[in-house]
Amino acid sequence: MHIAVVGAGAAAVALLDHLAAGAAPPGAVTVLEPSPHLWRGRPYAPDLDTVLVNAPPSIMSIRHSDAGHYAAWLGERGPAHLDELLGQPLVPRATFGDYLAETAGTALATLRGRGWRVRVLAGRVTSVARAGGRLLLRTEQGQEHAADHAADHAADHVVLCVGGGTPPDHYGLAGTPGFVADPYPLAGTLERIPAESVVAVVGSGLTAVDVVVALAGRGHTGPIRLVSRSGLLPHVWQRPLDHRPIHLTVERVAALHRENGAVTVDDLVRLLRAEVGEAGEDFDDFAAGLLAARHEDPVRRLRRQLAAVGDGAIARRVLQTASHTVGAYAWRLLAESERARLRRHFRLATSVVSPMVPVNASVLLRLADSGQLTMAAGVRGIEASDGRFRLRGDDGVWTADTVVNAVNAPPQSVPPAARELVASLVTGGLAAAPPAGGIVPVDPRLHVAGDLAGGGSFVTSGIPGVAARAASAAEAALAG
Q: So what's the architecture of 179-234+357-405 in CATH?
């Protein structure tokens, strides 16, 4: 059994860790990755210490079968990075990258010790095609190889672990001086921005929060303006509670599907209503508060949510957790009309299920209270003008010296470096490309781990989802 792994980010680490934990007979694994930052992917490469892991340790384990794996690795390092409000350690993302790299190294050593043949090669896979009873991978070799030299690798199974997309350029500013097309790593992009300059950060999600916090950490003194279409900031994480749902569960959703032959959004709402009611909370008040976020002043909302970090209400916590667990399962049971109902709330849903950590929220609130940070919704256009940028929105026209593109890539988007590969899979009939994005394997020897997997919801996978998909892909490959 020879498994080829395309990409060496978090999903590949989870895959290797799962293989190493199993008892399958020895085989061969070849990992192909063009980036020098093995095992870290784009999110966890070396960067500024102000760029933090955006979730508590309890949901950051790369080992699918052990939710405490990351927390155990942190050990005595944790208290030095404690978020006082959240009561949890939040380390720099580069430190989480160290965790991934160490986990991958341990898995590779374990596999080799059990007789597996393991290779990690530098190279970008450009195509995969059928070749008799196997799959043939065509690669562009890394820089240490001769220029333009290509190589072939045959495998019995191929697992795609290529990561997510990059920020889309909605306003066609690529190549314009002063425009930062992709902010990561922030250590490299922000050092070119003068401290006193006027900066417009396009977007209002987690990437935009990272940019603002990093600018503040570098001592930026000029005005910072968050500009976006919705103006909706992420919600703020609340302290984890030991609450186990009894109504909004995969088992209950599966039972509804067996009984009725279908699952609707209203069914899911009823389960959430029962969960919230069981805890003595008012579901209608909770829902009204969520919907009001689209019109509430963002600074007032930020202040209110920071004050509620330690609040004991379970409703938002249950919704956040269920969106990544129950939601991922239920989405596949929903009719397209039901999915469309949920997509209408895309921005609000994203802000709820992908919250920011309190320490970052505190920085935003401090900058807003001082007047250095302002936020504007309803942005309609951005264009270069006389060496600066002109921004048009619902409440007027503004100018900026620098524009940082912090728009989050949509889920299931194809990374630029993988477009040629994905095109070959679809053209060759190994995979299909659903209209909503991503790809769905057609050949059982092809597997996808991570957000490239088509057919999922619009909620971007967190580490638990990535680890679960990788473990599933490993089991499918081993099953032959």
A: 3-Layer(bba) Sandwich (3.50)
